[in-house]
Each structure stands twice: as C-alpha cells, then as structure tokens.
Amino acid sequence: MKSKIIEIEEALRLDNCIFIDVRSPGEYNDNRIMNARNLPLLDDEERKIVGTLYKNAGKENAVEMGLELVSPKLSEYYKQFADIANEYDNVVVYCSRGGMRSKSVVELMNSTGMSVMQLKGGYKSYRNYVIEYLSSAAQRNKFIVLHGLTGVGKTELLKLLQEEGLCVLDLEELAKNCGSVFGHICYLEDPPSQKLFETAIFDVIYNSSDKYIFTESESKRVGSVMLPNEIYEMIVSHESLHILLEASPADRTKRLVDQYVRLSLKDDDKLMESIGYLRKRMGNEKVDFLLECIEAKDYSSAVEKLIEEYYDPMYNYSIDKYKYDAFINTDDIDSALRSLRDFRASLSNS
User: Could you give the CA distance from residue 172 to residue 53 in angstroms, rounded to a whole number?
Assistant: First the structure.
C-alpha cells in the first residue's frame, strides 16, 4: 500500500489531527510542531550510534543497526501509537526531513489497518513554513501594543483579555520570563529554545481568530530568547496601535509585591540574589538598602526603591517614543479591562 504524503500547509488545516514526532527526544525538545506527541524510534544515544555508523560505514550498515535497535521495541511501540491514533480522525507522522524514520512508521501502521499520513519534508518543512509565515505576519495581523511603566498591570491585563476570548500574544509567558531583574525566577519551567519560542509565536498568530492581537511592548530580547525581527518590527511599528497604561505609585508597588514576592517567588534568597546583580547599575549603598528591606520582610519599601531608582529611569525613555491611540488608568483593573475591550470593539476588521 502506497503511503499518503501530505504537505504541511494542508496538514495544519486538518480537523481533529495529531502530529506524531518520531525523532529522538533531543530533537523534539529543541523544536517541534506545536502540540505534537513524541514517539521516538531511537533515543538520543541510539540516534548518535546510528549517525556515527552512517558517517563512518555507510547507509546500509546504519540501516541495519537501526533495525536491530528498533525491532525489540515494535510491539510496545505499536500499542503506544495506536492508543494515541485512536483518539483522532487524522494522524500525521513526521521525522527530520520526511525520510526513512517517518516512512517506515507510516508503512507499518498502515499495514495494520490504520490510516496514517507522512509529512512531506518532515520537521524541516514545518520550520520553513513557520519562518515564512512570521515574515509576512504584518500583512495579515495588527498588534494592539500595551505600554507602561513596570507595575501598571500589562501582563495581568493580557491574561484577563485572553480569559475573555480576545486574541493575545503573551511573549513573557512564551519565553518563560516575566521581564525585569526577576525575570528568570518567576517560572518553574525551563525557558524554550530559540526555535521553540518562534514556533510558539507562530502558533498563536496562525490560530488567531482575529486580525487584531493584543501584546506587550518588549525589547528585542525576552529573557534568554530573541524576538523574530518581523515580530519585533510589528511591535515598534507606528502601523500598530499603541495604548499607554498608567497607574498610581501605590498601585504599582502593591501589584509588584503581589506578583514577584507573594505569588511568584516566595523565596527571599532568590530575591536577594537577583537584587545583588544590580550593584553595578545602582551602586552598593542602594543595593544594600534593598537587601536590608528584604531581610526585614519590608517588600513594599524595596519595591518603591526599585521603581524610583531602577525601573522608571530605565523605561521612561522608551515610553516617550510613541504616539498613543489611547491612555488607560489601571488602578481599577476591571475598569481598565472594559476600556481595552471597548477599544478593540471600536476597530474595523477591514
């Protein structure tokens, strides 16, 4: 039976579809089709063995070794594959470039009566599609960019907008980094690879049901990853819609204390370690004051000092660069949310 081969663009449009990634766990963890399941034929060490053999002894010997490694696993592999496939109407299998790994799995599963498709070009075709799609995102979508000093509630509002069904690109969530000096300790998960970060951005934009997407003003770097050039240019573009969020110093302080200390960190040692990195920028005297505040559990005084001496001087300049389409006060977060909803409702989809 000849296996059905499907192009990535068609595969992404399939209803109730699951992508099964038969590459090694290392390849899968670096980047993958979003929401794909990993059922590796070879683990990382086995893949290394076969790859070395291919390089030194040729394809035939490598194939023979691959078969030797895979054969004892086939019964259990089939059961795992069938358990997943039975939950979906469409099953698409891929490997690195649409070669022997995915082809052999597709042929095996189809021979048992399943209906399984092979992705033409494998992961590589998907990666190319992601790059091309992001490069032309500005032709299809428009950003509503939230600006504001640290603590005005940009991230909180993005999450509330998302809960209400509006389209949101939460870059800090995708990068697993909440920005600022504490960015690297707000998430338990490891940050994604650069490629996986780009894939996550693509997935949000590709599946957006709205032309307009809310996002937050960001620098080119978000934690350990970089925004794709095209997405960064969309964020800073005057073609996007820009909203400045404003809040009282007291409200900003309270929000930051809640977000970074009570809700996220709960670990004064990590908090103090992060503050220690600011000595070069703020000086020893100011940093020592901050550390004393943390030791005394006086988080509000520490945050007030950080706002005054670190955050605002660093970010004020970027706020002045834009002409804003709206100004919204966030002291009452529910009122701010309504204002953002109304702003979106006022826009034409044309």
Answer: 42
Domains of the chain and any CATH numbers? 4-131 (3.40.250.10), 136-345 (3.40.50)
Burial label, 189 (beta-carbon count in 10 A; 0-12, 13-18, 19+): exposed
Predicted confidence (pLDDT) per residue in 271-300, tens digit: 888 888 889 889 999 999 999 998 998 989
Could you tell me if 323 and 238 are in contact, meaning their C-beta atoms sit under 8 angstroms apart?
yes
CA 4, CA 1: separation in Å to the nearest integer?
9
Residue 343 · residue 157 · CB < 8 Å: no
pLDDT digits (tens, 9 = 90+) for 73-99: 899 999 999 999 999 999 999 999 999
Average pLDDT, the chain: 91
Please give, one letter per residue, the 3-state secondary structure of 265-292.
HCCHHHHHHHHHCCHHHHCHHHHHHHHH
Asked whether 205 and 141 are in contact (CB, 8 A), the reply is yes
CA dist 320 and 302 (Å) reads 26
